[in-house]
Design a protein that fits this description.
The structure is a single chain. This protein is α+β, with helices and mostly antiparallel strands and 220 residues long. The chain has 6 helices and 10 strands; from the N terminus they run H-H-E-E-H-H-E-E-E-E-E-E-E-E-H-H. The two termini are 23 Å apart.
Length: 220
């Protein structure tokens, strides 16, 4: 069992770091190579201090969401994952969905940082708002259930309505499918207390909420 004070054990890298500390062995990581490869393969640029002309991000309360980052990736081809990725996920009990969803899970289990991919073209408007849900607001989630929300639950929203329950589960309407062409890739930090209370109220536990309610490393 992973105790609540050791969220760093909820990743392969975290366990490797712990073993290295205990044994004095050198910690091996391919983090830099992975990021370099990703930049070339996806043709993604990293800009600092430049407002994205395609998307505005608004965080209503920094206590609820201290950090929210996103990247637009265009012209993706959604399909089955390569066999090596399927096998690695299946070995830890994670079902393969498609290459986009699978790579977010791969990063989650490797680094302990949950990611979420939205179908960019299905987001309502060119704005992401991290806010509390409205009283009696509803959202159809990716598990096919309609969730009744309230002001104690944090959501990711477009200009018109919520599209995901922050740190817990995505919405059905904006999920990545075989027809998705462009994605918005989210990586964020959420208040652990809000995630835990929201998860308990809704009766959901996901790999993402399990990590967010214990605390995710800002440096990761």
């Amino acid at each position: 069992e992973i105790t609540s004070n050791r969220p760093d054990w909820l990743s392969v890298l975290g366990i490797a770091r712990e073993i290295a500390a205990i044994t004095g062995a050198k910690l091996k990581t391919n983090k830099r190579n992975l990021l370099d490869y990703g930049s070339r393969r996806l043709n993604v640029g990293y800009s600092h201090g430049v407002e994205n002309p395609f998307l505005k991000i608004e965080i209503e309360d920094k206590n609820d969401c201290p950090l929210y980052t996103a990247k637009i990736i265009r012209d993706v081809k959604v399909g089955p994952s390569p066999d090596w990725l399927k096998k690695r996920l299946e070995l830890i009990g994670c079902r393969s969905v498609n290459n986009v969803v699978d790579v977010t899970n791969y990063v989650l289990f490797t680094y302990g940082q949950p990611l979420h991919a939205f179908d960019l073209d299905k987001l309502n408007g060119n704005e992401i708002i991290v806010r509390r849900a409205k009283a009696s607001e509803k959202l159809l989630t990716i598990d096919g259930k309609v969730r009744l929300l309230d002001q104690n639950i944090l959501v990711i929203a477009g200009q018109q309505s919520a599209v995901a329950i922050a740190g817990i589960i995505g919405g059905k309407y904006t999920e990545v499918t075989e027809n998705t062409k462009n994605i918005l890739l989210e990586s964020a930090i959420f208040n652990p207390i809000i995630i835990r209370r929201g998860r308990q109220k809704l009766g959901i536990q996901t790999d993402s909420s399990y990590r967010f309610e214990r605390g995710v490393d800002f440096e990761t």
